[in-house]
Write a structure and sequence with these properties.
By secondary structure, the chain is mainly beta. It has one domain.
Amino acid sequence: MSFTDITGFCILAELQYGSNGEASGASECDAGKSLESESTGRRKWALDTSDGVDSGWVPVQLVVNADSSNSPVAWLVNGADPDPIAYTGATFGEILYFKLRAGVRNAGRRISFRNVSVSFYVNGSDSTAAESGQISNPPVASTLGQIDPVDAESIVEVGPENSGYRKATLSAEVRLESEDIPNATDIFGQLFVFTSSCQ
């Protein structure tokens, strides 16, 4: 299959198997506007890969704040270095909605999200959310027990009922699993942020 081409977003926060924390390999976590403009981080998903990979449930949180010039984007992946992964290369307006994607390439892989919650704030300095809620159908992509060639993805969109929000958070737990050692991009999760303007 070909993965859905998602366009029109301002910010993308990602995690992938990468090189399982090895300094010389592909990164495991990043946040930014594109591959050409991003901040990256390292995270070891599994200490023992002799029987494949199982990261266990890892807490993550994306914070986007249109009113902050010092830290408009903070991508927190528990156990990653640095924590948070900060990106300052974007200026954006009202936060409209999120898209959350789980994706796997090749057989014997799974990525799962659970306990996904979102909060929207009128001002960047607010500590109390004007709107908040949980996603009832968090994305899971799995090719466990299948035979190549095979890929899978699941996409969920979530946004507020009202408008005018300058800060938003998306929190979740994510789990990466593989029956063997995957390629760097075989298991990935992506959080897309759509805004009223983006520079």
